[in-house]
Amino acid sequence: SIRCQSTNTKEPKSSNILDNASNLFTNLLSGGSLGSMPTAEGAVSDLFGKPLFLSLYDWFMEHGGVYKLAFGPKAFVVISDPIVARHVLRENAFSYDKGVLAEILEPIMGKGLIPADLDTWKLRRRAITPAFHALYLEAMVKVFSDCSEKMILKSEKLLKEKEVSSREGDTIELDLETEFSSLALDIIGLSVFNYDFGSVTKESPVIKAVYGTLFEAEHRSTFYFPYWNFPPARWIVPRQRKFQSDLKIINDCLDGLIQNAKETRQETDVEKLQQRDYSNLKDASLLRFLLRDDLMTMLIAGHETTAAVLTWAVYLLAQSPAKIRKAQAEIDAVLGEGAPTYESLKKLEYIRLIVVESLRLYPQPPLLIRRTLKPETLPGGYKGEKEGHKVPKGTDIFISVYNLHRSPYFWDNPQEFEPERFLRTKESNGIEGWAGFDPSRSPGALYPNEIIADFAFLPFGGGPRKCIGDQFALMESTVALAMLLQKFDVELRGPPESVELVSGATIHAKNGMWCKLKRRSK
Ligand code: HEM
């Protein structure tokens, strides 16, 4: 059961000994210094009912933009307020680290950028940023379209086989979540590692190991007690044994790739890279910029997230045939029968907006995680409080991107899928300290970003630790979606309500995103 109440009003009514004990722990942990903060209290069982991020939304409606979530012995501060989020992510970014997230990811990503402590992060971010140069991205559009084409050809082949074998064969059923997952893995393999996973068309031990590792990362992000830190667990617990063997397969593969990159490196390559001459470079991948831990980080960060964006874009579009037709009219006008190029991406405005609107409704990940490195005072939020709450050192913070993106305080019809919303200009709702929504605040940007909505829109985070692959992922998603809709009409196989959400690092469809693909009649 869930008990929600504000500490400003009544004492919590504890129903059993366990709850009493957890309240005691919570109070000890938070030391009373979070005392005036509204509090939502949950029982351990709440973690198994529905995804946590959905419960955080209900509590946001009840308790407002900053509240404390007490879960047994754990207490988190949940932020759903753009002014406070901006403070934590940008204005005061170096007073926080990745806390729980770093603990979970460190065994997998080591000192990679996502979990990295501040000192490591500063060095590595500086080294990696040049790798995502605009000309590199331009060169990658070809990789995106080549890989997407393989996915389309595979679907067309299945369709043909069906046409031959049955009369009602103009439609195939596919789990698009799985297809997009393979596609995104192939793309990240080629563009970051210069390695062809070939997962759209076949399975390999490395792919299986990558999935196994992602699966474990997800398990760790939702499991209560970090038993994996207890060394014998590696040998005793079967899933931990499997995790260790998966890691070994990936590490051996990465070592091979790094070795290969070293051996085949030609001095002229370095010159071409320095001159940003990607078109004449045999291997334009990022291998030369990255260390092992960064490679692993890119593999995980760049694969699941992009696949999830495409999956939810299809889910939303499939419920809106008029929007599919509008998208297809744009694709026909811009691309005809051809493949997208960097130049044509600029003209695919509606497809780009579909991608960002899908990220608004289904942000990946739905929560950002931080921990205070010193005592902090949060700013007052959208309700106009002059000063916010004091939080002690070591406080765990969730910034709920999902809540921000669906907040009725900052968006019209927040639960509706309306890609066109990003074209509107809007006043600030009179909220002091929040600059409001204004696309002209980010001139020249191909995609709407956190600046235009002053941190009420955070699909890639914000501030210094903002996603390094944002443009890469957005372009990749635009290309893949455009190429799918160019050839097919898409419907969900069952009613939308039958698609069940589960969340780990990203939001998944529990039983896949089963869709009907029908060849487009022109
Ligand atoms: C960080 C989202 C694709 C690499 C982040 C963060 C978010 C995010 C929200 C910030 C995390 C935080 O503040 O705690 C996404 C989404 C993607 C995507 C939604 C796809 C649609 C990619 C790709 C790559 C990538 C394709 C690399 C090729 C990274 C890295 C960081 C990061 C390295 C850490 C940056 C740092 O701490 O300096 N991503 N990402 N991401 N992402 Fe992405």
What does this structure look like?
This is BnaC08g10110D protein. Keywords: Carotenoid biosynthesis, Chloroplast, Heme, Iron, Metal-binding, Monooxygenase, Oxidoreductase, Plastid, Transit peptide. The protein has 18 helices and 14 strands. The model is unreliable at 1-32 (pLDDT under 50). Helix 5 (99-109) runs antiparallel to helix 9, helix 8 (176-193) packs antiparallel against helix 13 and helix 16 crosses helix 18 (470-487). It has 522 residues and is α+β, with helices and mostly antiparallel strands. A hairpin with a 3-residue loop joins strand 12 and strand 13. The longest helix is centred in the first third of the chain and has 32 residues, at 134-165. A seven-stranded mixed beta sheet has the order 1-2-3-4-10-7-5. Strands 6-14-11 form a three-stranded antiparallel beta sheet. A two-stranded antiparallel sheet has the order 8-9. Protoporphyrin IX containing FE (HEM) is lined by residues 113-114, 125, 192, 297-298, 301-302, 305-306, 309, 364, 368, 459-461, 465, 467-469, 472-473.
